Sequence to fold (130 residues):
Amino acid sequence: MKKKIIFSALFALFLATAFADISLAVEGGFQGGSQVAGGGFSGPGIALSTVREALTMRDDTHVILRGNIMRRLGKDKYLFQDATGTVTVEIDHDKWGGQTITPGDAVELYGEIDRDLFNVEVEVDRVVKR
Fold:
């Protein structure tokens, strides 16, 4: 009988902890430079970069670029351009967010540098039409 009570109490504690973690994940987090309801980080984030700067960054560095997607180069590869130059970006189909983008549309690309021996690309996590 005591074992059942102890087991039930531990199980209830486990469930309460699990649900508390889930609700924190839904309510808190980081959005831009402002704090969201329920808590989270409030402060500076990743700064806007130029293509020229991005081409010198280390592999896996997070980057935000603002400019235009000029043309498709291949399956998920596109040519991105800003005032300082061009870079190949990789945008998987699920990263477009249902948006239709043309070369005349200004966009912000959120992603990370993908550097290998001969190339530098940006692997895009999110596309935002401006």
Remarks:
- Confidence is low (pLDDT under 50) at residues 18-36.
- The chain has two domains: 2-35, 48-129.
- The chain is about 25% helix and 35% strand.
- The helical segments are 2-27, 51-54.
